[in-house]
Specification:
- This protein has one domain.
- Helix content is about 0%, strand content about 30%.
- It contains one helix and 13 strands.
- The strands form four sheets. The protein has a five-stranded mixed β-sheet, with no helix packed on it. Strands 7-6-9-12 form a four-stranded mixed β-sheet, with no helix packed on it.
- β3 and β4 form a beta hairpin.
- The N terminus is likely disordered.
Length: about 190
């Protein structure tokens, strides 16, 4: 799996595992977020700085395993689909989430976005493959496939969930109350 670093502010990072029997047992390091100090300052996003960069790979790219989708003809009819664990474009690694681990302490308060982070089950896999969600920020997962999917989130610090999405267009909303790094999200599909 791509490296994940401890969050700028309380964050839940979802590592999305493709549909129909894929299995990835990523470990979830514990994350803690200090309570805001009494004299903490609210950060104005319009005046805050930004950090940008690119994660580069040196060496050969590991082979992505084929995702077994034979349990649902709607998923297996599109041909072979590989995991997106290692996606490299011109040396840059995709599906990586980088954030500030230390240094902010509890002296700053960041407003949580109210706009949901969106994930689509499309072609029997999650798009995008890795997302960052702030604690209490809505996460919306939609099924764009014409088959039954279920969404199985396996957090360590938040309640586990396992919900079916019966038809295309169905949306489910989730929130995470505790900060956490690397929440595996698995989807399995069955005949629709």
């Amino acid at each position: 799996m791509s490296r994940i670093y401890k969050a700028l502010a309380p964050v839940a990072v979802l590592v999305l595992i493709a549909a129909c029997g894929g299995s990835d047992q990523s470990k979830s390091p514990e994350a803690t977020s200090p309570k805001a100090a009494p004299d903490a300052q609210r950060v104005d996003a319009s005046t805050a700085g930004t950090i940008s960069g690119r994660v580069m790979l040196q060496g050969s790219v590991p082979e992505n395993p084929v995702i077994k989708m034979s349990s649902d003809p709607a998923c297996s009819s599109g041909g072979e689909v590989k995991s997106e664990t290692y996606v490299v474009d011109k040396g840059g690694v995709n599906n990586v989430f980088v954030y500030i681990k230390d240094g902010l302490g509890n002296k700053y308060i960041f407003d949580t976005p109210t706009e949901p982070v969106k994930i689509d089950q499309k072609g029997c896999h999650y798009v995008p493959h890795v997302v960052g969600v702030r604690t209490t920020q809505p996460l919306e997962i939609v099924n764009s496939d014409n088959t039954l999917h279920n969404i199985h989130g396996m957090p360590k610090q938040n309640p586990e969930f396992n919900q079916g999405q019966m038809v295309a267009g169905l949306k489910n909303d989730f929130t995470f109350k505790a900060p956490e790094v690397l929440i595996p999200l698995r989807s399995t599909c069955t005949r629709g």
